[in-house]
Specification:
The complex is a heterodimer of chains A (279) and B (280). With 279 residues, chain A is mainly alpha-helical. Chain A has helices at 19-55, 66-75, 77-111, 113-128, 135-142, 146-170, 174-182, 187-225, 230-239, 243-271. Chain B has helices at residues 2-6, 11-16, 70-77, 117-128, 132-145, 161-173, 191-208, 219-225, 259-275; strands spanning 27-36, 44-54, 59-63, 85-90, 93-94, 102-105, 179-183, 211-216, 228-232, 239-244. Classes of the chains: A mainly alpha (279), B alpha/beta (280). The structure holds adenosine-5'-triphosphate (ATP) and magnesium ion (MG).
């Protein structure tokens, strides 16, 4: 593959491996590699932690030993997975809602000059405002529950998706539309076949930032405004001084974050195989 | 580069078996002018008035200094931009909206990153809703003739600049248009690739006889390819001279073989010098 760049005029005689398989192969290789190194490092860290905690006889209510909270993760897995499921659902709802609203809105804003002038200052204002501030208001409107948490997640990932989608739609080379019009493409075709896919990498990078913000924000949202989810569970454990459950919740939250970020990475490779083809 | 000429199955017949083998269109433009931002605060007179009279199957080049309105001319003759004044007729029919019996190639390939080479070419079929099998056969033929066989399933960023430009030529021809508009198509390529691709284009044109309007900065390219070269003045560009190129085809890689070549080149240099395009 590397030599393809060197043959300017010669046609390629051999077809390279299927790009999708190729991409998956690389994903597998790099994933397994970094996973192994990461696992070893974490195991070493936990081992050291365990050893220090035992050696210095640190009480569990102050700093739990890895064996304590990992044990809780197993012993209480039903409770924890119930809350982890609720958290995941909240992330999914908030995130999906923000994609559904932000991407079309971005297109409308870049297509209609009046919208841009009228709406953009409002959006910028809403963006710099801390999102959790809205929590108490939402609680009055919707009552304490996962709906409020989902709405806060929505607000948190909405702006990066909006801003990146806008720049994606804007960055499309206008001469592409000459090509599409010379083909007699309808507006719909030129959106669907040219503009949306061309903007996809930018939309995706917005969605990736959005997911990071969502998994971060969801816990805080659940602290203040929900009656289930890992944030809620940790808050409750805190009021009982149940340190090992709090640490177990922390680990569960990290796993949820890992899964979501990983899913985004895989979705990107599957939906946009051209993004990292070659090079 | 032998493989490009070795398989000399005449394209016309090979393509004719699948497509209609549409002949070249005639292009008539009278007094076309372009003022960008007309009616706005700062209108800009970018082109004309110019007249064009291009016969079916003719290869005409437009050469002129940067910013003189060459690209604008191309957009006007395809109806992609409306004229500010004047009229354009293609095959005797006045142009009111973008015509679709056209293939366009720009300086940078403008392929879609997210489609493979073949998918980029087949986009013509998808959007125009043409017969998939016929177009696929034509596409394969063009890949063959343009020397990009084997690149069908590669994404544009996996191809070299020259290969990408070949793919975009295939895209411009796959639906069998009656005219081919090329805006500095080889401008971004290295000299060696440029010479080869010029020859490949000439061979393809000799067999299909599409009407070609070819925009270039390069005197060598203009003389090497054209039946006729139109020389434009600085902005707002007008056509100041028309030069018929009487050289046998196919023309060689090294055009200096022909003593006439340097005469043509000299004529164009002299026009540019007189216009003050060159200040030496
Ligand atoms: N959409 C536009 N709006 C305003 N001005 C334009 C627009 N397109 C082109 N122009 C101006 O019109 C003039 C002619 O542009 P054009 O692109 O046709 O030149 P060109 O001869 O193709 O130049 P080059 O050789 O550099 O490609 C330039 O001065 C350019 O700035
Ligand atoms: Mg130009």
């Amino acid at each position: 593959m590397a030599t393809s760049q060197d043959h300017h005029i010669m046609p390629m005689q051999t077809t390279g491996p299927n790009p999708v398989i190729h991409a998956l192969g690389r994903l597998y290789g790099s994933f397994v590699g970094s996973f192994l190194i990461g696992a070893v490092a974490i195991a070493a860290l936990l081992g050291l932690w365990q050893w220090l905690a035992v050696w210095f006889e640190v009480p569990t209510w102050l700093v739990p030993k890895p064996s304590d909270f990992l044990g809780r993760l197993v012993a209480d897995w039903q409770t924890i997975s119930y809350h982890a499921g609720a958290t995941s659902l909240t992330i999914l709802e908030g995130f999906a809602l923000s994609v559904i609203v932000a991407v079309p809105l971005a297109l409308a804003i870049v297509s209609i000059a009046a919208l841009e002038r009228g709406l953009y200052p409002v959006i910028v204002f809403l963006n710099i405002m801390p999102k959790t501030v809205i929590g108490p208001i939402l609680i009055i409107w919707f009552g304490i529950g996962p709906v409020v948490a989902a709405l806060i997640v929505f607000l948190m990932c909405f702006f990066p998706i909006l801003v990146d989608s806008m720049s994606g739609f804007r960055a499309v080379d206008p001469r592409l539309f000459y090509i599409s019009r010379s083909m007699g493409a309808t507006r719909w075709q030129s959106f669907w076949k040219f503009r949306l896919p061309a903007a996809m990498p930018a939309i995706f990078s917005g969605m990736k930032i959005g997911v990071v913000k969502a998994v971060e924000g969801v816990i805080i949202a659940e602290f203040i405004a929900s009656n289930k989810g890992l944030g809620f569970m940790i808050m409750q454990a805190s009021s009982f001084m149940d340190m090992s459950l709090m640490f177990a919740g922390l680990i569960a939250a990290a796993i949820v974050a890992l899964i979501f970020n990983g899913a985004m990475g895989i979705a990107e490779r599957v939906l946009m195989p051209w993004g990292n083809a070659g090079h | 580069m032998a493989q490009m000429t070795e398989t000399t199955q005449p394209l016309q017949s090979a393509l004719g078996a699948h497509g209609s083998g549409r002949a070249g269109a005639s292009i008539h433009a009278k007094g076309i002018t372009k003022v960008y931002g007309q009616g706005g605060v700062s209108p800009f007179h970018a082109l004309g008035p110019i007249d064009l009279d291009i016969k079916p199957g003719e290869f005409v080049s437009l050469i002129g200094p940067s910013g003189c309105g060459k690209s604008t001319t191309l957009l006007l003759t395809s109806g992609l931009e409306p004229v500010s004044d004047g009229t354009v007729e293609v095959d005797g029919k006045p142009l009111t909206k973008p015509i679709s019996e056209v293939g366009i190639v720009f300086q940078d390939h403008l392929l879609l990153d997210f489609r493979t080479a073949m998918q980029n070419v087949l986009l013509q079929q998808e959007i125009r809703k043409l017969d998939a099998e016929k177009i696929r056969a034509r596409a394969e033929m063009l890949f063959d003739r343009l020397g990009i066989r084997g690149s069908e399933n590669k994404y544009p960023r996996q191809l070299s600049g020259g290969m990408r430009q070949r793919v975009s030529i295939a895209r411009a021809l796959v639906h069998d248009p009656s005219m081919l508009l090329m805006d500095e198509p080889f401008g971004a390529l290295d000299a060696i690739t440029r010479t080869q691709i010029r020859h490949d284009l000439e061979m393809l044109w000799l067999e299909t006889k599409k009407t070609v309007l070819f925009i270039t900065h390069s005197i060598e390219e203009a003389v090497g390819l054209s039946d006729r070269v139109l020389v434009m003045s600085q902005s707002p560009g007008q056509i100041v001279e028309e030069i018929k190129i009487d050289l046998p085809r196919p023309r060689p890689a090294h055009l200096g073989e022909y003593p006439e070549f340097s005469k043509y080149a000299e004529r164009i240099y002299k026009i540019f010098a007189k216009l003050g395009v060159y200040k030496f």
